[in-house]
């Protein structure tokens, strides 16, 4: 078995330095990633970091970042956590859609139910 390609797991291990979880506050699939700064020396970043910074110039969900990078979610989270720690991206919870309650509609529905 010597001389065989060790496979993608070794590469993924190297991307994260063996870490399986991001540093700092946790975030989920729908969290929004936005590039806020570009590094002074981009040559020090790995290609995946640079790809995230380019992709997230427009706010992008974590799930879309993982799909774009073609990496497992946990690896993507570690990469995003590193970029957040360096102050290059923000990772925010999505804002809930504004809900306006129209009492008139509720009254009409209630009236309709009572008439049944």
Task: Write a brief caption for the model.
By secondary structure, the chain is mainly α.
Primary descriptors:
mainly alpha, elongated, 116 residues
Description:
The protein has 116 residues and is mostly helical. It has one domain (8-115). It is 45% helix and 9% strand. The chain is built from five helices and three strands. It has helices spanning 8-16, 47-55, 62-69, 73-85, 103-115; strands spanning 32-35, 60-61, 89-92. A three-stranded antiparallel beta sheet has the order 2-1-3. The radius of gyration is 22 Å and the shape is elongated. It holds the Pfam family DUF742.
Layout of secondary structure:
Elements: H1 8-16, E1 32-35, H2 47-55, E2 60-61, H3 62-69, H4 73-85, E3 89-92, H5 103-115
Antiparallel strand pairs: 1-2, 1-3
Helix pairs in contact: 3-4
Beginning-to-end CA distance, first to last residue: 75 Å
Count every beta strand, where a strand is a DSSP E run of 2 or more residues. 3
- Round the mean pLDDT to the nearest integer and report it: 82
Please tell me how large the radius of gyration is: 22 Å
Proportion in helices = 40-55%
Counted by DSSP, the helix tally is: 5
H/E element string? Answer: HEHEHHEH
The global form is elongated
Structural class: mainly alpha
Total number of domains: 1
Main sheet overview = 3 strands, antiparallel
Low-confidence stretches: none
- With strands numbered from the N-terminus, the spatial order across the biggest sheet is 2-1-3
Bin the strand percentage. 5-15%
């Amino acid at each position: 078995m010597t001389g065989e390609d060790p496979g993608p797991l070794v590469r993924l291990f190297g991307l994260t330095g063996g870490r399986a979880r991001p540093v700092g506050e946790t975030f989920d699939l729908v969290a929004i990633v936005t590039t806020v700064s570009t590094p002074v020396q981009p040559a020090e970043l790995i290609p995946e970091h640079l790809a995230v910074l380019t992709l997230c110039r427009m706010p992008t969900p974590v799930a879309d970042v993982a799909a774009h990078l073609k990496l497992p979610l946990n690896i993507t989270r570690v990469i995003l956590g590193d970029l957040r720690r360096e102050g290059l991206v923000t990772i925010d919870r999505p804002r809930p859609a504004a809900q306006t309650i129209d009492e008139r509609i509720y009254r009409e529905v209630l009236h309709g139910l009572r008439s049944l």
